[in-house]
Structures are given as structure tokens and as C-alpha cells.
Prior knowledge:
Blueprint: H1 2-15, H2 23-26, E1 29-30, H3 34-37, H4 65-79, H5 83-91, H6 94-99, E2 101-102, H7 106-110, H8 112-131, H9 149-154, H10 156-162, H11 172-183, H12 190-201, H13 217-226, H14 238-246, H15 252-261, H16 268-274, H17 283-288, E3 292-295, E4 305-307, E5 310-313, E6 316-318, H18 322-335, H19 342-353, H20 357-365, E7 369-371, H21 376-386, H22 396-410, H23 412-424, H24 428-456
Parallel strand pairs: 1-2, 3-5, 6-7
Antiparallel strand pairs: 4-5
Helix pairs in contact: 4-8, 5-8, 5-11, 12-13, 18-19, 19-21, 20-21
Amino acid sequence: MGKTMWLVQINDELKSDGPSVPEWKRRSIYKVPSSVTELNKKAYKPQVVSFGPYHNGEEHLKGMEEHKHRALIHFLKRCEKPIKDIFDCMDQVVEELRDSYNPLEPIWMHDTPSFLQMMILDGCFMLEILRSNDSAPDNYADDDPVFGKHGKLYVVPYIKRDMLMLENQLPLMVLCKLIEVETDKTQGDELLIKQILKFFFSPGTPETGTIGKCMHVLDVYRKSLIQQGPTQRTRVSKATRRRLWSNKCMHVLDRYRKILIGHTKKTSASEDEEHEGGIIRCATELQEAGIRFKKSQTNSLGDVSFDDGVLRLPTQVVDDTTEYMFLNLIAFERLHAGAGNEVTSYIFFMDTVIDSEMDVALLNRKGILVNALGSDKAVAKLFNSLSKDIAVDRHRVLDEVRQNISKYCDKPWNKWRANLIQTYFRNPWAIVSLVAAIFLFALTIVQTVYTIAQYYQP
């Protein structure tokens, strides 16, 4: 009986066209797997406020629920619309909102009124927080604990952090629908995205022209970080360019075999391939090899380039929120098909450049890192920990940069220079010894010349 039902089910599925949009394309907000959260459990959990179903009702977040209710009342009074209008508007897209979450507990699947109530309360609160960035909305008191000056100083920074948690996202459609009811007109999400960026990056708000369609606040934030590509060109040799486009393998085993035996072939093309998977040296060693560090023209994580011995990297402020922000962006790229791997690739690249506090100090002097965290050692430890247990699908721009740096360091003159610095200029005593040796050698030459001159003197 069971076998017959299964055959009927398969035949029915074959006859049907299936859903117009694949299931995974409708998802955008994810529960982070335990295998990821075990590395840093606090990084994925909100501290003061919950948005969406994953942390709704948790004991340490209940204190903000009364402020969500206040935000809804203020929103309704200001727009002069009944709550039923908002509820009916959200009800029209409830299935799309549910599909955004993966997974979603059965209670939210079956209890539509409770799900919509949560979306409306959380959405109104988030919208009011975004609007209070410049100044408190008209119908809030100046001393409001959340939306007034006090809240802006002591509460909003923690809310801002919680808004970047992958498990703590709301579909951007919720905010768009609220604005639609408020203004009585349908409008794009461009103004909303600009408001979100102003909230996180004020006063230096990135341009929104090329940011594209976004799914939630974390997606907006991520796209703003990577939208600008390299402003300086990384030169790629013809051999490398040919390998990037034509070095094809038949299957995974063939690729693995070629990697294993590639080092036995000494043609110029295979020499390029040797650099393909090479790990570049840390910043201090790169400097010893003659590489100079400069700030990129933009702060985009994609603005990384290497040309003529100069490695350009974007400026990155490192503070208490950096670790949580990057871990959630990496988790989003890991879980969302089609998100890309730009942030993950940048973190992997920076992990190779930063090995110790000396590397951090060097990048800090060049204006590439702004250390607002504390000691340089803490910053080095942070970048080294971010790349734990991550899978990197090579990003073409950074892969080209990595290969060109590796080739530059392998040039005979640069190798000799690096070895000279490592051997004789690592500490003051070695420098003193080298200078003394050169001085004694010079004196010996002078003495020899003087002796020979005296011998031939009539």
C-alpha cells in the first residue's frame, strides 16, 4: 500500500509543473546550524530585542516588548490609520513572509493571527528606530527611554547590533507594507534602503544606486560593503589569464590529481599554477619583500588590488561589534544560495595577511585598520578566529591579487631582500653586528691599500 502511494505521488509530481519559484529562492532568513554557533554562541543571539520568530518570547528580551507596543500606537496615531488596514495588508503576503524563514516552527505556520501580530509589532518598532536616527519622531518625548536622546546613547547601539543578526531579521517587505499603508501609495524600497544605510553608516552613507534589490537589513548592510569593486587595476599575466579561462578538468578527481602532480612540471604555465593555491605571507613579511601598503580609494571590501609592488586594502574599523557583524555576514553567505562569497573571501584574505600584533600595528600605521577594540594582539586574534571552519570558493579578484603577490615575493631580488632583512635586521643587536662587521671590513680594506701603497712608495 505504502509503495503504491509513493508511486502515485512521484507520478503526480512529474505531471505537475512544480512551484513557479523554487523553494530555496523564497528563503532568506535562516536558523544558524549548531555546528556553526558552537564556535561562538553569543555572536548569533540578540542582546536586547527580538525581530522575527526565532528569538520571540525569550526571557532576556521581554523587556523590549512594551516598547514595541508603544511604537505601534505612536505609528498608528501619526498615520491616522486603523490597525485593521495594516493587518489586512500583511495578510495578503503572509505566505511570502513565512516562506522567508528556514526553518519555521509549526506554531507560526498554523497560527496566522499570531504570526502577523509579531510581524506588525516588530516591523513598526524597527521602522520607528530607523526614523529616530536623526531625531525623535514628533510624538515621542525628548526623554523617551528608547526613542529619545537617552535611548540613542544607551539603547540604540545594542539594537543596531541585534539588527545585524542573521536569526534576527525581518523581510524588508514588512517595512515596505507598513510604509505603503502609511502613505496610501506603493513605492519602491530605494528610500527605505537609503534610510537603513544612513542608520548604520551616518554620516558617511554609501551610495545606493547599484545596491539592487534587498531581502532584509543584513542583506542591505552586506551589499553596501561590497558594491564597489577595485578602483586600481591588478595586472594579470597572459599565462595566468589563459589558465583562469582554459584550465579545465574532467571531474573532481581529475582536479585533485592535477593539483598533486602539478609541481613536477616546470613549464611557465605550471609555474603560474603553483601560485594558484599558495598562501601569501603576513603583512610584515610582505613589507620585508618590498611590498608597500596603501589605503584603497573606497571602504568597499571588494576594493582590493595589487600593482607595481603596492597592495591596496580598504579601511576597516575594528570595534566590539566587528566580530558579530562579520560572523553573521559569513553565515548568511554560507546558508543562502546565490548570496556570493565576497565577505568570506575578504576575511580569508585578511587572515593570511594578519598573523600577529606586528601585522596589525603595520596596517594601523598605514590607515588600513583602525583599532577601536584595544590591543593589537586582540585584533590579530579576532581576524584569525573569524576564518575558522569556513569554506572559501575562490573569489576571482582576490585570487588574482594573491597570485600576483606570491609571484612578486618569489622574484630573486625580492627573495634576497627578504632574507637579508630577516637575517640581519630583525633586532637591534643583529643590526649593530652587521654594521660593525662592515666597518671592520672597510678598515681592513683601507689598511691593506695603505700597506700596498707603502710597499710601492719609492
